[in-house]
Structures are given as structure tokens and as C-alpha cells.
Write a structure and sequence with these properties.
This protein is mainly alpha-helical. It has two domains: 1-33; 36-64. The chain has helices spanning 10-24, 26-32, 39-63. The protein is flat and about 45 Å long. The chain starts with 9 loop residues before the first helix and ends with a helix.
Length: 64
């Protein structure tokens, strides 16, 4: 569960909450679930995510 303690300025607390949601991936997940995704599109998206993740990992290993 994500919590943000409000101490004074509410704007700062809102920014902190948005950042925590973004880092946790909740915001992305909610946006993705907003509309129905066909199984073929879901498979394509997952495959692209896996390729992106692998490319990022290889880049990190290469540049150490």
C-alpha cells in the first residue's frame, strides 16, 4: 500500500504520491486497463516489453 504523509503543503504531497505511483507502475497499469486489449495485442505488447528489457540489460552489461 502506498502512503504519503501530508506535512503542510498539499501540493508537495500530491507530487510525492504521483511519483510513488509512477515508480510502482500503478499509473501505467491503470492506463493500460482502461480499455480492452485483444489477446494478440497483449502478446505483441508483452513481447515488445521483453525485447526492451533484454536490450536494456545487454546495454548495461556492455557499458558496465
Amino acid at each position: 500500500m502506498i502512503e504519503v504523509e501530508v506535512r503542510g503543503d498539499i501540493e508537495i504531497a500530491i507530487r510525492q504520491l504521483k511519483k510513488k505511483l509512477m515508480l510502482d507502475g500503478i499509473k501505467k497499469e491503470l492506463k493500460r486497463r482502461e480499455f480492452y486489449e485483444k489477446p494478440s495485442a497483449k502478446k505483441r505488447r508483452k513481447s515488445a516489453e521483453a525485447r526492451r528489457k533484454m536490450r536494456k540489460l545487454m546495454h548495461r552489461m556492455k557499458n558496465g
